[in-house]
Inverse folding.
């Protein structure tokens, strides 16, 4: 019997380019709660972004946010856990990334990780430019690592498809940290390379939450759509991917209907019958 579901947000619960969750998906989540199933939403979004995107009454129990850097109880917005970079780690990562001709952001510590430093040295990737514009007044440009103050939640590097090799190089150079690849929710094409504190990802943070709830991954069903969901999907007893996920993921996991076809609702109802 399934005791918990772990679901991604963008491109899964909330279809890409949609501004609200469908009624069918919302009702399915309510049905899960009525049957005593714990509903965990695992997302790359920050608390600030979640509060400005999701309706107050969204029927979920917990948020694993910022790709695992924090855990929050949704009803009362209590932050239960944070996993962040120290000031020393932040400076170390920035020093490594500074060697590349790339722009990146440094998200400040939770709950203020919607504020960020950013390096703007090369021609702006369109996705990067839109990210800066989407958060007016929240970004501070820097011209050297000496301008960085304190620790951070994460770093974000935005690459295009021709720079995929650079993601691998960054991953190798920063192997002491958690380097996660995802697809941009802004243009659905750019490659996001995110750097977190060691061992931080959706999978390990969901494990910490499950431990607190006295639940096991084997008792969970999971649904995702992108590379940053692999860490929790590989641990779930019943993992699924939406049918419009990248082909390499569809080869690894059983599929549910596409996000725009209420794949979440189909997943929830299937899981309730496992």
């Amino acid at each position: 019997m399934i005791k918990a579901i772990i679901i991604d947000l963008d491109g899964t619960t909330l279809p890409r380019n949609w501004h609200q969750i469908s009624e069918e998906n919302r009702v399915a989540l309510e049905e899960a709660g009525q049957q005593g199933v714990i509903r965990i939403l695992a997302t790359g979004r920050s608390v600030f972004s979640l509060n400005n995107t999701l309706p107050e009454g969204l029927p979920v129990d917990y948020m694993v946010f910022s790709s695992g850097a924090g855990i929050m109880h949704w009803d009362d917005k209590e932050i239960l856990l944070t996993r962040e970079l120290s000031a020393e780690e932040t400076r170390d990562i920035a020093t490594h990334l500074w060697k590349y001709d790339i722009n990146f952001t440094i998200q400040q510590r939770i709950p203020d990780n919607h504020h960020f430093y950013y390096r703007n040295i090369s021609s702006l990737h369109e996705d990067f430019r839109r990210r800066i514009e989407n958060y007016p007044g929240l970004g501070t440009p820097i011209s050297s690592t000496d301008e960085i103050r304190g620790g951070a939640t994460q770093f974000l590097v935005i690459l295009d498809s021709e720079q995929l090799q650079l993601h691998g190089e960054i991953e190798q150079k920063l192997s002491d940290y958690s380097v996660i690849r995802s697809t941009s929710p802004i243009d659905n094409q750019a490659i996001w390379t995110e750097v977190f504190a060691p061992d931080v990802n959706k999978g390990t943070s969901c494990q910490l939450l499950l431990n607190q709830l006295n639940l096991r991954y084997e008792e969970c069903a999971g649904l995702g759509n992108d590379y940053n969901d692999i860490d929790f999907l590989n641990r779930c007893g019943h993992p699924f991917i939406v049918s419009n996920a990248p082909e390499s993921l569809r080869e690894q996991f059983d599929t549910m209907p596409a996000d725009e076809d209420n794949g979440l609702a189909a997943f929830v109802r299937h899981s309730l019958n496992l």
